[in-house]
Design brief:
315 residues; alpha/beta; Rossmann fold; 2 domains; 6-stranded mixed β-sheet; 8 helices; 15 strands; 25% helix; disordered N terminus
Length: 315
């Protein structure tokens, strides 16, 4: 918690001269070391979530090659650590978007169980020298401070969405639970970020943090116009962020969409299987694709797209 408080304080005391733009994603420093990769998996059928699967029911492949995973757990009832990352920029004043955001967060807080913890951060830009992302409530099991904080929100300024996303690993760094996720609530507009969408996605993907995105009137990436052309607005970028980190994108157009999205996310987080394997610590550091399949028929398997690091250890 002390680390988050310090981070928040640092965010409010920027130097007089704006910092230089971030380096391109390809120049981010890589540390070559052995790492344990955790792969959360949800399995659904038409009847709902599939429970009671054993390790032998799963097949894990990295870069198309089947690998062993010594670690296997069902973590259906373990507590979660959730970060709410909230857009409070000027565009959120339109169409009741900020009120919808408050309602979404309240729905999650109402479902809190013993051991669940929450953190709250908001982002907006008043000027080039003003903080873009502020940790309003560090991780806590007490929901009262979060309810108080969301009641004080007033929309203002521009939006640095991708800069805020890039800070997510730092904000979530003091979480205590194995199940971690981010709930990003925004209309998708970005007019002030220094980070590109690709850089922000890469930073979060490396941190193994699924991002669930509520796109308030930001469009549907699968929607088509009457002529058959794609009709999305900002949803393509938001959908990529969610899918690349193992989360989901939800286009929100009204209260029913909001309630359904909250229910889906809560169930997702409660019903994970977790597969774990070790990397070798040797070889090229790059992105490795992950695919997971199960032996049962007519099921849908959702998991992270991959990880960045060295190849899996051979056993």
């Amino acid at each position: 918690m002390a680390a988050l408080v310090a981070a928040a304080a640092a965010a409010q005391t920027r130097p007089a001269t704006p910092p230089p733009p971030p380096p391109p994603a390809s120049s981010f420093a890589d540390e070559v070391s052995v790492a344990w990769i955790l792969v959360p998996v949800t399995v659904k059928s038409r009847a709902g979530y599939v429970r009671g699967l054993d390790k032998e029911d799963f097949e894990l492949k990295v870069d198309g090659r089947r690998i062993d995973f010594p670690d296997f757990e069902q973590r259906g009832e373990l507590p979660w650590s959730l970060v709410f990352l909230q857009d409070i920029s000027g565009s959120m004043a339109l169409g009741g978007r900020l009120d919808a955001s408050r309602e979404a967060i309240r729905l999650f807080l109402d479902q809190a169980r013993p051991g669940d913890e929450f953190a709250l951060a908001s982002f907006a830009v008043q000027s080039s020298l003003a903080p873009t992302t502020l940790v309003e409530v560090p991780f806590t099991e007490e929901v009262g401070p979060l309810r108080d904080a969301i009641g004080r929100w007033e929309p203002y300024g521009k939006t640095a969405l991708h800069d805020a996303v890039a800070r997510v690993p730092e904000i979530s760094g003091s979480s205590r639970n194995l199940k971690r996720a981010v709930i990003l609530i925004t209309d998708g507009v970005d007019n002030a970020s220094r980070f590109t969408p690709e850089q922000a996605r890469e930073i979060v993907r490396r941190a193994d943090l699924p991002v669930y995105v509520f796109g308030l009137e930001s469009g549907d990436p699968n929607a088509r116009s009457e002529s058959g052309a794609e009709s999305y607005r900002y949803s393509d970028v938001l959908d990529l962020l969610a899918s690349n980190t193992g989360g989901k994108y939800f286009p929100i157009h009204g209260p029913e969409d909001l309630k359904e999205a909250c229910a889906v996310i809560a169930e997702d987080l409660r019903q994970h299987y977790v597969l774990g394997f070790e990397t070798s610590g040797r070889g090229e550091v790059r992105f490795h694709t992950i695919t997971v399949s199960v032996s049962k028929r007519a099921v849908q398997v959702a998991t992270r797209k991959g990880y960045r690091g060295t190849p899996p250890a051979r056993r």
